[in-house]
Amino acid sequence: MSSPHLTPEMSLDGPASLRPDEDQATKHNITVAVRIRPLSSREILRGEEVAWYADGDTVVRNPNVSYAYDWVFAPTTTTCEVYDAAARQVVSGAMEGIYGTIIAYGLTSSGKTHTMHGYKKSPGIIPLAVKDAFSIIQETPNRKFLLRVSYLEIYNEVLNDLLNPAGKKLRIRNDPHGTIVDGIKEEVLLSPAHALSLITAGEEHRHVGSANFNIPSSRSHTVFTLTIESIPYGESNEGDAVTFSQLHLIDLAGSGSSRAETMEIHQKEGSYISKSLLTLGMVISKLTDGKDAHIPFRDSKLTRLLQSSLTGQGRVLLICTVNPASSNAEETHNTLKLAQRAKRIEVQASRNKISDEKSLIKKYQNESRRLKEELELRLEHEEEAKSPLLARIQHLTKLILVSTKVSGPISCLLRLIRDMKELTTSLEKELSHSSSDSQVKISECMEEHPSQALQAKDSLLNSIVMQKNSGVNNEAQQHSHQGKTVPSEISAEPLQNKQQVTVPSEISAGPLQNKQQVSCLTNRLRRLMRDMKQQTTSLEKQIGHSFLDSQVKV
Ligand code: ADP
Ligand code: MG
């Protein structure tokens, strides 16, 4: 096998600043797969016969001649099987930094678009490759990846950006990274679904035409490019070079087949399509004929785009799609012969690295790191800014402490009420002689209306003491007391809310030896009452009535 002949023109495009991993670089040939599609029902109806068929997994033949390839897929083979057998290794190589190109080449209506794009029920190599790329990322926890895509068409020898309708007549430029399309829009990929939506949007801008029998036929070549960058996982990869590669997935326009179908494509378009494909054929021939001749990459946009793939480091898979119908037999033969030649092109698979400044993943990572540092710095500043805030909060807390001083009179008042309750209870004990059910319920009343209850109690005590002192124990009064009716002067007191204050029936018969104790307790209660009034007044001055009310109730 002869190696590609590097002309000065080609060496220009050589990936100079790409650093191929010399140890890993292995020379190998372009791999070629032939995929034969089934005859369509129309073709069968038309009386077409199968002219070319698969003979095993690697041979295509007709009754007279046979050709061997890396793979031959019979009409029953699904696109997934084609992907697994032939395309997967190109995609996985690209994920490891080895350039990859997959080209579907064949006559119009032979199955190129079916193979590359497919449809929902039978996804093509492009969606399968994108899905696989994401699976590989998932299964490679020791590396970080950045994927981006571009999508362009070559229509009438003009490059149009399918991801950006404004991007027309784009120019191709030589770059150390291979062949670069100036100003092409690249979208960073987030998911396989994202890629599919981009393709769908791109297809809207594509030039397609209907060939004969309403079969959709592309009038333009499309190049879907997945650019892959990866670096080892971890923060400390400052010195690590970035692994870089591109995966080109190319669906060529039909090369024309039956005269009827070719006539569907306008003459101008047809001639441009032919020019591209003829030049591709020429380039492939010259790359493999062993002569040190000029290789006409620049004669067509397609070959110019494919130049670095066909000469540089990488893996190339040519899928030659075949319509086995007898009416196309001769054109199919030519396609198969070209695929045979292409099989002899030698390329070199090696992992490529790029420098930091060229890498988008490094750029993003550095930006992310810078932003993180900036964020940390800001947080630090905020920490610093916290100190005056904390001081202010402390100051405000002090103010709140000032306000707790207000609670001084309240707690004092509550204490007084508590004391009064205790006193009242002991007073009740002194006054009562067991009959618990008929006890004076002054303590209950105290909780709700302390001052009124106190006044009521005061009056009650006075009257009791008076009665006891005078020794009066007449029937009427006793009857009145037995009926548990409050004396008239008490009921006329502020307890107008009809709260019943009862006194024990035995009071009138109570022992007189308690008199002094009762009087003492009454005096203490009076003092407390006075103190409480004073505290209430002071509290009212400080915080107003409403606050006082609520606090006292609490
Ligand atoms: P091309 O892109 O080469 O012009 P298409 O991919 O559009 O051709 O295929 C033409 C027709 O043949 C389409 O209707 C497509 O669904 C059908 N076809 C192509 N390849 C296959 C296949 N392997 N199995 C079944 N149908 C196929
Ligand atoms: Mg097509």
UniProtKB/TrEMBL annotation:
Belongs to the TRAFAC class myosin-kinesin ATPase superfamily. Kinesin family. KIN-7 subfamily. Residues 29-345 form the Kinesin motor domain. The keyword Nucleotide-binding applies. Keywords: ATP-binding, Coiled coil, Microtubule, Motor protein, Nucleotide-binding. GO terms for molecular function: ATP binding; microtubule binding; microtubule motor activity. Residues 347-385 form a coiled coil. It comes from the Eukaryota. ATP binds at residues 106-113. It comes from Lolium multiflorum. One of its GO terms (biological process) is microtubule-based movement. GO terms for cellular component: microtubule. The keyword ATP-binding applies. This is Kinesin motor domain-containing protein. SMART domains: KISc. It holds the Pfam family Kinesin. Residues 1-24, 473-500 are annotated as: Disordered. Residues 473-485 have a biased composition (Polar residues).
